[in-house]
Specification:
By secondary structure, the chain is an alpha+beta fold. 44% of the residues are buried. Strands 3, 4, 5, 6, 7, 8, 9, 10, 11 and 12 form a ten-stranded antiparallel sheet that branches. The protein is globular and about 90 Å long. Among the domains are: 44 residues, no CATH class; 83 residues, Catalase, four-helical domain (Hemocyanin, N-terminal domain, Up-down Bundle); 164 residues, Class I glutamine amidotransferase (GATase) domain (Rossmann fold, 3-Layer(aba) Sandwich). It binds CIS-heme D hydroxychlorin gamma-spirolactone. CIS-heme D hydroxychlorin gamma-spirolactone binds next to β4, β5, β6 and α11. CIS-heme D hydroxychlorin gamma-spirolactone (HDD) binds next to β4, β5, β6 and α11.
């Protein structure tokens, strides 16, 4: 089914969750006629009321209330974009826990009741770029989840990276000003490759660990569906016995963690700036529903100080050897949005949204966030933003908060205060579900300070770098070199080399050589040599190779082998991937034996060779058919498709005469080909290759899977 057809079908799709049912209240049932905003039927929406002598048009009249309404509404369509994370995409889904295993940590039913299905809405985003910027830039990705629980809304406002740039919320305006476009010329868009950002992080070494992550392949996710998600901050859980635990929340993608290589990401920014947004829509609409496992790391209160880092410092991970990750549930996204603005643009997340059984910690970044999000929503959406359809809870809301701009609710009765003689909406004791703070003992002096362990910034940056595979390290060195090459102030790129020399001597040396910095003579600090497997993204390759949801292009010209193409498409569909026929024109392409232009009877090519680029697909197959293979070999653009895909280490398959074209295109005579594969085997081998996709530069010849003409 085409994407357009799948989206149409969704209009009548089954309502699955409480939140979707709730949204139906505001979903417009389409009528056949046009009205103004107040329901008066409109006879002409094209011509402003004018003075006319019947043949010429005179001045337009202010009295035209229909034209004025249309124009005024248009003039006010925009709201302030998010100050960060302006560019995003969203989808609906549901969350379930597998058992009541988390009861030892919390009494929150959303985390402990396996009979429940909780509606969720997720918004993914980039951080730096404005609303119209490209999806595939190097950046952190936002991963914000709203749970519409029966006890109220709970938000995990996280990222695809487990740590953050700064330790204290008071530094947030500075880091954001530094990374955003520079004030004098509003450059650059969607990039951190500029003087101000690297100046700031050079002077703020607490960001060193985060820089390692963003400059690694994690900064270039292949898809929102192939990223981990992290709550980042330290939260707390409280169980029925009143015991408290510090926790970190994790999302692990079912499809594994995969990234672009830099060259692909750069090109897609221009070729298809909406790549991630479309990828999410395509996967959900074609039934490959994105899924994440949900896990928690928990530390009992009594062990808070047992670690050589502060567990409330958001620039540190909790290594899984020290604090194991327990998988307790899963989330599936199964519905695209109906309309972007009221859902994705108006959704408002707040770290302060928690439900009984879940609590905050003294993490100084979280404490500040708990103030900032509510505040920013007032500026974006007005004080009654909680009432917007996408934000309102699925359980009753009853209180004495009133009025304000754009209030929707109408309360009956004479009372809007508490206490009142009628005892309307009474506070609920904790034993009956009322929220109560954990009775934490606090003592101390007021001071602007950070804890002693917050002063150490390089141990975990080193741990991360040491844990990468060789090719991941090379990608990271190239990424920092790219960024610092875009900084033209020597003070900036020279000082950052000094920071890197605290992490790894070779890393610092190589970057300094690449960007014209001062090459260090000795390490600023010894490398502790420790590593841990869970930090490399290779660790998250799917256990079973899969091609699910991958985009596979079949390159043909007239004269292709029809049976092979049909076999390939069936095999691709069976693997829940999508196949795309790329031909000499969009329209019918004719197989061996058929007359070109004879009408139906071949296959419908989805795109012309110039209509797409290899970067937009995960794998490629060239079927047999002598004439088709010869025509492909004579076309510069099709040769480029294959060479570029090969350069990006993508899976490439060929059958029959297609093999000849492939060998010719990549011009690598030394490669040993497996010529005994049929259509099914070629396609299933893609799964193996795609799991290694992140190993890009080392895949080499393995990416070529070539089959015989069956
Ligand atoms: Fe933030 C948006 C994630 C620190 C202040 N942040 C925002 C979004 C995500 C994050 C995913 C987009 C939500 C959406 O899709 O609407 N932010 C993080 C993470 C952080 C973090 C993982 C570190 C642990 N943020 C942070 C701090 C502050 C903010 C320290 C302020 C003190 N963040 C905001 C904000 C935004 C925001 C200005 C902009 C738009 C919005 O909130 O709704 O309030």
């Amino acid at each position: 089914m085409s994407l357009a057809a799948a989206l149409k079908e969704k209009v009548t799709a089954v309502v699955e969750t409480k939140k979707i049912a709730d949204l139906q209240r505001d979903t417009v049932k389409q009528e056949k006629f046009l009205t103004n905003d107040l329901g008066v039927k409109v006879s002409d929406t094209d011509n402003w009321l004018k003075v006319t002598d019947g043949t010429t048009s005179g001045p337009s009249l202010l009295e035209d209330h229909i034209a004025r309404e249309k124009t005024t509404r248009f003039d006010h369509e925009r709201i302030p974009e998010r100050v960060v994370h302006a560019r995003g995409a969203g989808a609906h889904g549901y969350f379930k826990v597998h058992s009541d295993a988390a009861k030892k940590y919390t009494f929150a039913p959303v985390l402990t009741d396996p009979s429940r299905t909780t509606s969720t809405f997720v918004r993914f985003s980039t951080v730096q770029g404005s609303r119209g910027s490209a999806d595939t830039v190097r950046d952190v990705r936002g991963f914000a989840v709203k749970f519409y629980t029966d006890e109220g809304n709970w938000d995990i406002v996280g990222n695809d990276i487990p740590i953050f740039f700064i330790q204290d919320a008071m530094k947030f305006p500075d880091i954001v000003h530094a990374v955003k476009p520079e004030p004098h010329n509003e450059v650059p868009t969607g990039q951190s490759a500029h003087n101000n950002f690297w100046d700031f992080v050079g002077l703020q070494p607490e960001s060193a660990h985060m820089i390692m992550w963003v400059m690694s392949d994690r900064g270039l996710p292949r898809s929102f569906r192939m990223m981990q998600g992290f709550g980042v901050n330290t939260y707390t859980l409280v169980n029925a016995q009143g015991e408290r635990f510090f926790v970190k929340f994790h999302w692990l993608p079912e499809l594994g963690v995969h990234s672009f290589v830099w060259d692909e990401a750069l090109k897609i920014c221009g070729q298809d700036p909406d790549f991630h947004r479309k990828d999410l829509e395509e996967a959900i609409s074609t039934g490959a529903h994105p899924k994440w496992h949900f896990g928690i790391q928990a530390i009992p209160e009594a062990r808070e100080h047992d670690f050589d880092f502060d567990i409330l410092d958001a620039t540190k991970v909790w290594p899984e050897e020290l604090v194991p990750l327990e998988i307790i549930g899963e989330m599936v996204l199964n519905r695209t949005v109906d309309e972007y603005f009221p859902e994705v643009e108006q959704v408002a997340f707040c770290t302060s949204h928690i439900v009984p059984g879940i609590g905050f910690s003294d993490d100084p970044l979280l404490q500040g966030r708990n103030f900032s999000y509510f505040d920013t929503q007032i500026s974006r959406l007005g004080v009654n933003w909680q009432e917007l359809p996408i934000n309102r809870p699925v359980c009753p809301v009853m209180n004495y908060q009133r009025d304000g701009k754009a209030r929707h609710k109408i309360h009956q009765g004479t009372i809007n205060y508490w206490p009142n003689r009628a005892e309307q909406f009474k506070p609920v004791p904790p034993s009956q579900g009322g929220f109560a703070e954990f009775p934490q003992k606090v003592a101390g002096m007021k001071a602007r300070m950070r804890g002693a362990k917050f002063q150490e910034h390089f141990n975990q940056a080193q741990l991360f770098f040491n844990s990468l595979t060789e090719y991941e390290k090379q990608h990271l060195i190239s990424a920092i070199s790219f960024e610092l090459s875009h900084c033209d102030d020597p003070v900036v790129y020279e000082s950052y080399t000094k920071v890197l020399n605290n992490i790894d001597f070779d890393l610092a040396k190589q970057v300094a050589i690449n960007v014209g910095g001062i090459v260090p003579e000795k390490p600023a600090r010894a490398n502790h040599g420790k590593s841990t497997p869970t930090l490399s993204q290779l660790y998250y390759a799917p256990k079973e190779p899969t091609i699910k949801s991958r985009r596979i292009a079949i390159l043909v010209a007239d004269g292709f082998d029809l049976a092979q193409v049909e076999g390939l498409r069936a095999a691709i569909k069976a693997g829940m991937a999508t196949s795309w026929v790329i031909g000499p024109r969009r329209g019918w392409v004719y197989p061996e034996g058929a007359q070109v232009g004879s009408g139906k009877g071949g296959v419908w090519a989805d795109h012309h060779y110039e209509g797409q680029r290899s970067t937009l697909f995960d794998a490629f197959v060239i079927p047999g058919g002598r004439k088709s293979a010869e025509a492909l070999a004579e076309n510069g653009r099709t040769i480029h498709w294959i060479r570029e895909a090969f350069g990006h280490c993508k899976a490439i398959g060929a059958i029959g005469e297609g093999v000849q074209f492939l060998c010719q295109a990549v011009m690598l005579p030394g490669i040993e080909y497996n010529t005994n594969l049929n259509s099914d085997e070629v396609v299933s081998s893609f799964g193996v290759v795609s799991t290694g996709k992140i190993s890009a530069s080392t895949l080499g010849a393995d990416a070529l899977k070539i089959g015989k003409g069956e």
